[in-house]
Amino acid sequence: MTSTNLFGNRSRTFLVIGRAGMDFTPAIHGQTALESDRFSAGLGGSSANISVGLVKQGCAAAILTPVSDDLIGRFCIRQLERYGVDTSYVSKVGGEYRNSLAVYDRDETVIYRNGAADFQLTEEDVARPDYGAFAGLITTGTVLAAEPSRSSAFAAFDRAKEMALPLIFDIDYRPYSWRSAEEASEVYSRAAAYCDVIIGNDDEFGFMAGGHDRGLDKARSLVADGASIVVYKRGEKGSITISGDGEFERGIYPVEALAPNGAGDAFMAGLMTSLAAGLNLPAAVDRGSAAAAVTVSRVGCAEAIPTTTELDRFLAERAN
After folding, report:
1. Rounded distance between C-alpha atoms, residue 40 and residue 25, angstroms
2. Where are the alpha helices (DSSP H) in the chain?
3. Angle at 104 between CA 145 and CA 234, to 5 degrees
4. Domains contained in the chain, number
5. Is 270 helix (H, G, I), strand (E, B) or coil?
6. Alpha-carbon gap, residue 96 to 35, rounded angstroms
7. Contact 14, 138 (CB under 8 A)
8. Cα separation of 297 and 260, whole Å?
9. Looking at the domain assignment, is residue 5 inside a domain?
10. Nearest-CA neighbor of 230 among 220, 55, 73?
11. Tens digit of pLDDT for each residue in 80-129?
């Protein structure tokens, strides 16, 4: 499978595994959380954001995740459906399990992940979808941080592989979710060996390699070992994309960042929708970068990710 025909003649519907949550941001733009007495609630969670981005930019998405069987879980489902995401594979878990909650500030983000509902993903859950009906399976590293979600995600990888379904993996390393860095490194390396597309930043690849200065070599080695595309993100320095056709660098689109949240999720959505539409890899990376730029220039996560029309307008303005 090469980078130029990753999805072939498959549908443009993606299956996304991972969490959905509720985000809180100060209701008055420019205020910090400490200054605010009113907050706006919106949909968040990396996989939920990616799913919304895919739909906004012309593909379809179904999310596979558990949510808490309570008001917050119902809020997440309703928000996903409002954006047009298929929630057929969303299950509900009771007891003390809860959806993640995030509070965003200009300089700090606090995420509550105690007793996370999404970590209760089971092998029965991942057996439900018809994997052959999708263009690709997208997941983030968050789903691998605890059991039973970890084993269930790998079971989903096996099912996808049986159907020759491309696997797309955003490393998304969050140390607070893991028992140890050593465990995370081993599990991420195991997951990356399955995947056709791996996306991460320099810190994440460096973490997997055992040293920041070895991150790029790690990214290159993944392609040498069989991955179709690896995107090595370098923050303000842009990205290096590696594939069987070689590698290239791309810059970022400078904007005034109002909230640095959801950029990676927007990049993933922009990249995947562009490849599914038949764009070449450099053009797809550019659209992913543009989607990230638009997102951080707004407040919110899922809500801030641009539509195809908004993305086209942004790129046209930058071209003039």
Report:
1. 5
2. 46-56, 71-83, 123-126, 149-162, 181-194, 202-209, 215-224, 263-276, 281-296, 308-319
3. 65
4. 1
5. helix
6. 31
7. yes
8. 8
9. no
10. 220
11. 999 999 999 999 999 999 999 999 887 788 999 989 999 999 999 999 99
Quick one: CA torsion of 235, 258, 16, 93, rounded to 10 degrees?
130
Q: Considering the domain boundaries, does residue 102 fall inside one?
A: yes
Residue 2: per-residue pLDDT: 45
The verdict on residue 207 lying in a domain is: yes
The count of other CB atoms within 10 Å of the CB of residue 50 is 31
Q: What is the pLDDT of residues 225-250, one digit of tens each?
A: 999 999 999 999 999 999 999 999 99
Residue with tokens 């954006």: 83
Residue with tokens 């080695």: 221
pTM flag (> 0.85): yes
Reduce the secondary structure of 55-122 to three states and give it as a string: HHCCCEEEEEEEEECCHHHHHHHHHHHHHCCECCCEEEECCCCECEEEEECCCCEEEECCCEHHHHCC
Is the pLDDT reported for residue 3 higher than 70? no
CATH of the domain at 291: 3.40.1190.20
Q: Which amino acid is at 183?
A: E
When mean pLDDT is compared across 10-14, 198-202, 219-223, the lowest value belongs to: 10-14
- Specify if 164 maps to a domain: yes
Domain range enclosing 232: 11-319
- Backbone torsions φ then ψ of 306, nearest 5 degrees: -75, 155
| Owner of token pair 């407040």 | 299
pLDDT tens digits, residue range 35-75? 889 999 999 999 999 999 999 999 999 999 999 999 999 99
Return d(Cα 292, Cα 60) in angstroms, integer. 19
What's the one-letter identity of residue 294? V
